[in-house]
Structures
1.
Amino acid sequence: MLDRERIPRHVAIIMDGNGRWAAAKGVPRIAGHNAGMKAMKEIVKRAHQLGIAHLTVYAFSTENWKRSSEEVSGIFRLLITYVKSELKEMMDNNVRIRILGDPSALPGDALKAVEKAVSRTAGNTGLQFNIALNYGSRDEIRRAVQELVNEVREGRIPGDAISEEMIADRLFTGKLHEDCGDPELIIRTSGEQRLSNFLLWQAAYSEFVFVDTLWPDFTPRRFEEAIEIYQNRNRRFGGRKESI
Ligand code: FPP
């Protein structure tokens, strides 16, 4: 049973397996992403109902540009559809959308839709829904280092005083209006067990739950099961045994 008193504050998800889902059904890959978008809608709703403070999803990585232009443009068309169809519900549910990554490289209409969603929901104080778009964690860390170097050069911080906090503050996650902190739980679907350049710094003490379910089949019930697995783990943070 899910313990409603110990819901993780920040959950991150690697939504993997849309392509394999489509292949298994003998439909085009984009039909898999479409089904994946529907699954994502349901997970956002359940996250809101469970009182999760931050939900971060890996929607498009800095490496995903290597896919066919047809697939890439299809994913961004889906993103536009998603934002348009869900904006009202997000407003009703007090959900705030934020982007992690560099959205400036997105196709113009996708960028516009995303910017609108970010600005329209900016006053919402419920679930903070972070969508990683054109996101790569090494790129995120590189940018943070570059910023620190610039600040040292300009004499704003001493070069021998770099702290972990200074680095964390300059990551995309640290720059949100309300720092989303490190995810307590990272879920990856589809049976793959790797981070794929997602939240490398932030995952230092995260619990990982890998499920075999392909993302389009990942239901709110499966989501709750993953949280239950997390609740049964002991988090020690390198120290003494301690229950979460
Ligand atoms: C991974 O499956 C999924 C993606 C790279 C894209 C995720 C997109 C969505 C969930 C729908 C669109 C929503 C937004 C917000 C853009 P895969 O294609 O890597 O699957 P495979 O490993 O089976 O090929």
Note: The CA atoms of residues 6 and 231 lie 7 Å apart.
2.
Amino acid sequence: MPTRRSTDTTHGEQLFETALQQFDAAAELIGLSDRTRSILRSPKNEIIVSFPVELDDGELRMFRGYRVQHNDVLGPFKGGLRFSPEVELGEVKALAMWMTWKTSLSGVPFGGAKGGIAFNPREHSQGEIERIVRRFTHALGSNIGPEHDIPAPDVGSNAQAMVWMMDTYLNSASSGGDRQNTRRVVTGKTIETGGSLGRDKATGQGAAFVLAHHFEQINRDLRGTTAAIQGFGNVGEHCARALGRMGVTTTAVADHTGAIMNGHGIDPEALWRHTSEAGGVAGFADADEIDVEDFFASDVDILVPAAIENQITADRAPNVRASVILEGANGPTSNDGEAILIERGVEILPDVLANAGGVIVSYFEWLQNKMSAKWRLNQVDDELRRYLWDAADNIENEKKRLACSRREAAYAVALNRIGTVFDQRGIWP
Ligand code: GLU
């Protein structure tokens, strides 16, 4: 086995470094106090749990799970849980920090957290996944709670996983016996168990709203434009559908199985039927397979990275032909990739805004649970658009005022809110 040199950094450590660089630049720009800066550079809590799970064949395997709680001055910790073999501490720390900026920017009364379990759900049966999720929830114990830390789905996890978490939490001592009133310990649940209408599509729908806002600002018609979407999971699929409703044609899609293209358009419904059976976009009959590097260089108006982080790198950025990047994923553009894109005049709609639809509708779900209420779908969609457009307006104003990038402006809005609360509350003891 090759030995690790002390200079080697893992993917997660690099990602956290990226997040810190972005934070430092924005903190400098707005003159954030040194006290607040040093608090926000480190997550408040980093929880790592190891737990055994019996697999279907009787083998006992140890799993490792993480929950990083970055900051809670604006409200309970909030953020997704990802199931992926790549999950490691540095990655979760970066993602938790990004959640703090996202919730603050969005104006929802939450802080930021993220978690995950290092395993590949594609290699496990439903029964095994259920046991993994339940054991993880049990191991977390009172580290989560309806007014303390509220997980949600992320890459690799889904509504069913949230229902198992809720059920485990409700049936354990951590729920404090107040079962009916603690369903909001997780969001992104199925509708039947207390989820919100519109939560499933919220991130993709939200990204489409953000894009529409941008096109309105630049006085350009969205109808008749084209998009290339990387990732056809919850975000990519719903984004393709929402864009389609706005008159945008998706001509290229890529995922972990490959990349496909059809200049006349790819029907999201037909592709969804294909991926549900085949497990990925490869082999879709109504498109040609293309090289993944050609995918990033697609001749489209809008490029939507909606998969994982660090995809639009300094190598790929010079080849991008789209004029707008809509960041459906968290951290899909590296800092050096972003510098190249900005130099080339490409507009970037940053992740903390573009994919905030998920956590905003999570807040609506949490509120509905708290009030035992049920909102209609159009109410959810209208409120979602209002939250996102307010956030986008705030960013555009700050961008003009500070003459900075859109990501820096987004951070400025988020950090100013948090900084003000720190200043007013002070530090105790
Ligand atoms: N995982 C999603 C995100 O990265 C949603 C988080 C949530 O709803 O709490 O924003």
Note: The chain has a mean pLDDT of 96.
3.
Amino acid sequence: MTKAEIKQKIEKLSKIIDEHNHHYYVHDNPLISDLEFDKLLEELLNLEKENPELILPTSPSQRVGGAITKEFRTVKHKYPMLSLSNSYSKDDMIDFNRRVKDGLHLENDLFASSEIEYVCELKFDGLSIGLTYENGILSQAITRGDGVQGDDVTNNAKTIKSIPLQLKGKYPALFEIRGEIYMPKKVFEQLNKEREDIGEVPLANPRNTASGTMKMQDSSVVASRKLDCFLYALLGDDTPHKGHYENLMEAKSWGFKISEHTKLCKGINSVIEYIDYWDKMRVDLPFEIDGIVIKVNDYKKQLQLGFTAKSPRWAIAYKFKAEQVCTKLLDITYQVGRTGAVTPVANLEPVQLGGTVVKRASLHNADIIEKLDVRINDYVFVEKGGEIIPKIVSVNLEKRDAKNSKVLYAFECPECKTKLIRKESEAQHYCPNENFCPPQVKGKMEHFVSRKAMNIDSLGGETINQLYEAGLLKNIADIYELKKEQLLPLERMAEKSAQNLIEGVEKSKTVPFERVLFAIGIRHVGETSAKKIARKVKSIETLLSLNKEELVNIDEVGETIAESILKHFANPENLEIVQKLKQAGLQFSLSEEAMAETGDKLKGLTFVISGVFTKYNRDQLKEMIEHNGGKNSGSISGKTSYLLAGDNMGPEKLKKAEKLNVKIISEEDFEKMLEE
Ligand code: IVH
């Protein structure tokens, strides 16, 4: 191919890939399979690698991130980013309608002809962003900042797949579009689950997580966080229509993600109906909203109404009520987790809230206590936001007793009295006594025996506690020293359960290396990274011999994980535990079988597993797919290659697979695929 031909090919591929990204991420409706998509992307990446000078600034390859922003540049907004005034009731809405009509010198009657056209939108709970497009190309993404100037987060915004890098159709040469970057509920839950697996403190809510993610320096981490973005305002000198709603619909055709729930409503009664509907239905949305935004549609009317110092007179936010109660803060106690992270907990005078009695609320960390300036014996306002644990939102200062003094944050571990530490970049305090602090030791054991780790289900949390208190378990290696005679004298330990426990422990010796690596509880090493590491290093000896650089070279291992591995094994106590576990007969190298299994027979294929199987359980099937380079997915889409179907599969799944022409295979077909 000549350079010109390559250039043409790169442009064509970029366009096709963009189109497929759009169908997948904006319309949630993929047109091709994962395999086909990956092939296109791989072709483009190869051409770009060989011809770096031809990489387009809008290339879909930018989506994977990689660009590092050491310091975010501060940029002045062309149009100030104002906020909205809030309202909380129907009366507030009726007042707003009256103010709008007064401002427009309209009679406040309820004749349809004088009713205002409002656009009702969901109030997405994330962080606002202003995107500038020059000749159809995304040139800048700026956060709200203080409203006058914000941070340039363009590199990070480019990784959000629903934000178009290149527009289609007929768009103005220069304009800004504003919207909200958010983290879908499912993505947030998954992220927290992964954090839990590696003993990290869970993140508080999707909004702060989205906001924190956009401030990360490494855009490839941002890419992995699967943020999304709805757009809700078009700004510029030559926007195509005279109404906000019409402009949003036009912007949709250029490739932007505009919520399908945005609605044009005539008159305030219709607005109130919209509010009532979403107050009930918001729990079912896949993302969080904290209210509704109501905007006068007609730009001429918006202009006539103008702005106050802080917000437009032509728009208002209706905030959903989160039920709030006032109660007394009795005490703050501190919980120590498996990794030593300390979480302060507020103990409250019991109070009814949203149908349950609330006695405790999380205070997250020392910064939050400081910010709230909450003191023991204060009366505090407690709120339950949607599905999240109750939180203290503020202090009722009117009821504060002058005797209440500032909280002195715990300086020593409540469990083992070791001095707490706090790293500069972290909000959490830690107890560093990882191998002897009781909740850390017990937590590590619980993790060790858990299903995804050693899967010793005959040894539950209560038994661990009992054995720990009896001095029989001091660390995970002691589990393999347990004798039946030692167990029998324990309370509630019958012959049968003692026997089961010993057998369960024995059986765990066949658990493969990758799960043993996950089980020993190296901070930050989750299920997936343990798998990748095990397959790469093949034995613990090799792992112990690697330096940081070599560790970082392993897929899924970044600086944090590498440092954590080195730190873990730099501790002689941890090395001794590994030594003992090895002597006990645990798998510390990849079995012949696993090595033979590791391959790429299923590379590029995505499987959905459904139903009940005879030879393998679902986890085993999933593992086999991954071992052979395939991907697992929970739901059927155009990207699914095969539906691996067992008995009693749901009819909906079957229907969808048939509709999308996804091949349906049995357990036996699957085995044959691996044998071939
Ligand atoms: S319009 C001049 N529309 O809520 C008004 N804002 O206080 C510009 N938000 O900072 C905002 N969903 O981050 C608008 N559909 C929506 C919104 C929305 C969420 C956020 C936005 C803004 C805050 C308003």
Note: The mean pLDDT is 91.
4.
Amino acid sequence: MSRLVMKFGGTSVADLGRIRNAALKVKAEVDRGHEVAVIVSAMAGKTNELVAWVREVSPFYDAREYDAVVSSGENVTAGLMALTLQELGVPARSWQGWQVPLRTNAAHGAARIEAIDTTLLEQKFRQGLHAVIAGFQGVSPEGRITTLGRGGSDTSAVAFAAALGAERCDIYTDVDGVYTTDPRITKKARRLERIAYEEMLELASLGAKVLQTRSVELAMRYKVRLRVLSSFEDGPGTLVCDEEEIMESRAVSGVAFQRDEAKVTLIGVADRPGVAAAIFGPLAEAGINVDMIVQNISEGGATDMTFSCAVDDVPRAERALRTARDLGAIDWRELVTDTEVAKVSIVGIGMRSHSGVAAKMFATLAREGINIKVITTSEIKVSVLIDRKYMELAVQALHDAFELERAGG
Ligand code: ADP
Ligand code: ASP
Ligand code: MG
């Protein structure tokens, strides 16, 4: 019997009616003869509420307790989904991450999956039960509940699809596929029939939250056929697949953005070997995800070091840098933060063979009067840091300039 993983995101299970709607989709696949593992997120808004409670109680919270709290939203939907399926006549049972178990490392709040023991699920499938699994959560080597980072149910879904040898992993969400950019930013955004793993990986890591980055990494590594489709309307969705399966060849496939970025500059850093390590070591230890890095030209033995990170990480970054200075590990004169920036990126595997893409991006932004603060590039993407107030304008202008509303090209 063929297996399917079906994942339902927060808006798809936002209330009891929507859980029933999702359960009917599961029933349809069961009736077609599939064994189904359903992965559920917390109801829309629930995880945000739980995170806010944690922060209110404890601004520099203990990550173990953060996970204990924020993992709970998924438990509710898993149980409700199993009950709804049972009411529809589908034999189903729910499991939390630790019960499977889905084993992770101990990086609370952003844990990585290490292994999934499928013995129990295989046994239950043999007994004719379909599985409902709480997404986003696992269990650490110490036996504590962990979470996989925001949006982590996508990663749970792909990991289960790989571990269970599923024929396909269907991600049901509130858009009917992966678009050239977030359809909330421009009506001209177009659904892509297919997108290469590599492009999807870049788009996700550069801010397109339709799939969690790690889920795409896993899908690519284990060759999981990943489909993104709507919970609310029927349609083919978008298939995330190998580059070779894609006919369309264009320089740029999509535009991504990250709204809540911050730029941190250390002015007057002693310019000597080891200084970058001395700065970024403490930041890494504090769990800060540093993104873009620029070291300015030094004068008189001193330099300025600029990096970007998430706005939420700024207080912890500042604390780590001040502590390192107090301990004498680094020396800098001034610390300047700009929390009003955003990152906009263009992505496309076609960039490997098309030249002038970055120049066209910069010219487009210049025409709109948008100043670029930091630039980074890779083989298939160009990212810029700009003032947040221009973010939407930049995305729309780039979408137009690269004619992304047109198919082919
Ligand atoms: P879920 O709760 O189902 O996991 P998410 O909110 O995490 O859903 O992801 C879906 C959202 O991703 C969409 O509502 C859309 O606004 C956003 N999004 C961002 N970039 C894109 C894109 N390129 N294509 C489709 N959706 C995108
Ligand atoms: N509920 C979690 C979150 O909001 C996981 C997910 O939805 O994928 O981040
Ligand atoms: Mg999501």
Note: Residues 91 and 128 are 7 Å apart (CA to CA).
